[in-house]
Design brief:
By secondary structure, the chain is mainly beta. It is built from two helices and 21 strands. The strands form six sheets. Strands 1-2-3-4 form a four-stranded antiparallel sheet. A four-stranded antiparallel sheet has the order 5-6-7-8. Strands 9-10-11-12 form a four-stranded antiparallel sheet, with no helix packed on it. The longest helix has 8 residues. The radius of gyration is 19 Å and the shape is globular.
């Protein structure tokens, strides 16, 4: 895949003043407009773990896949601590079936006061907000007849945790594919509890299926598709399909598959349930060639999303950060896009 990537437009994608922007998903509307759904949260919060307690999913549009995308409205925002997704909505993935747009996402909540400029110095991964926010992560779904909303949200997640499983602690990072018959294959990230029953374990990637997008989601098998012990630890899987089968691009968390932590990997499947890593697994690196002639190794390059039109991948989108690497060392984030070469 990396050899097929063109130059990234410097002014493509989505960036928003005053906000951290992350992870996008794009779909073309009936009117020919490209609709991006992305996560954002205020920059007065640290990038990590600010998303865990204050992310919202926004809708932006462009006349071209590259963009730049223009903010339109908040698609899924805070709606009260009493809701399972009341405080944070993150990891958007948009698909369409017949006349219905389906927005998959991760939601979470916490029962505490808001984090503000006055108390943000108390906010970190070990704070009460983050303990509750991370523990509460679940996968949900919202639907609309229009890419502009309004979105109908559910009162419960579609994929909850299960005790004594590889997703006993949380579920997040959904990546759906809806087949022609309406059935769904849903890749997701899960974490389990360690033996102490308190702390969370490493990232696992599982697969769930449903007879329809609004049907019951069932996790297939007792073991994850990818884990530290099987293939290697990965994150941010994205799935798409064509006449020959299913494909996945994901972030290689530790570099055990591609040789470099943070680079992308490719995998394939005939049914979406049994997966194999490609013989040449490296899909991309964090080094990006820009259309202004510069070549830059990005601080972070995550949340890959492949736009498919007329059965062929045309663009790949990433969440990216400047800086030398590490979530605490960047000054800005944005969603970028790279066209595939013809």
């Amino acid at each position: 895949m990396s050899k097929n990537l063109g130059d990234a437009p410097v002014h493509g994608g989505l960036e928003m003043d005053g906000y951290w922007v992350w992870g996008s998903s794009v779909i073309k509307g009936n009117d020919g407009i490209y609709n991006m759904y992305a996560s954002r949260w205020p920059k007065y919060l640290p990038f990590h773990p600010g998303w865990m307690i204050a992310s919202e999913i926004v809708h932006a549009t462009s006349k071209t896949p590259e963009g730049p995308y223009t903010f339109q409205e908040v698609a899924l925002g805070a709606r009260g601590a009493q809701f399972w997704d009341g405080r944070s909505c993150h990891n958007p993935k948009i698909v369409k079936y017949k006349d219905t747009y389906i927005l998959y996402y991760m939601g979470s909540t916490h029962p505490f006061e808001d984090v503000t400029l006055e108390n943000v110095n108390q906010f970190d991964l070990k704070s009460k907000w983050c303990i509750a926010g991370r523990w509460g992560k679940r996968i949900g779904m919202a639907t609309s007849k229009s890419p502009n909303g309004p979105w109908v949200r559910l009162d419960t997640p579609i994929l909850d945790v299960k005790p004594n499983s590889f997703y006993s602690y949380l579920t997040s990072n959904p990546s759906p594919l809806i087949k022609e018959d309406g059935s769904v294959v849903l890749l997701f990230k899960g974490r389990d509890y360690k033996a102490d029953g308190i702390t969370n374990g490493d990232m696992n990637i599982g697969v769930a299926t449903a007879p329809s997008y609004d049907g019951k989601y069932t996790v297939m098998g007792d073991k994850p598709l990818f884990s530290v012990d099987h293939f290697g630890e990965i994150e941010d899987p994205h799935i798409w399909g064509d006449a020959t089968g299913f494909y996945m691009v994901a972030k290689d968390q530790r570099g055990t598959i591609t040789g470099t932590a943070g680079d992308g990997l490719l995998a394939h499947s005939k049914d979406g349930l049994q997966w194999e890593v490609d013989k040449n697994p490296k899909a991309y690196t964090k080094t990006v060639h820009w259309d202004n002639g510069k070549t830059i190794t990005q601080g972070q390059l995550e949340r890959p999303f492949v736009l498919v039109e007329d059965g062929k991948p045309t663009h790949i989108f990433f969440a990216t950060m400047d800086g030398p690497g590490g979530f605490g060392n960047g000054t800005k984030t944005w969603n970028m896009v790279i066209p595939f070469k013809n």
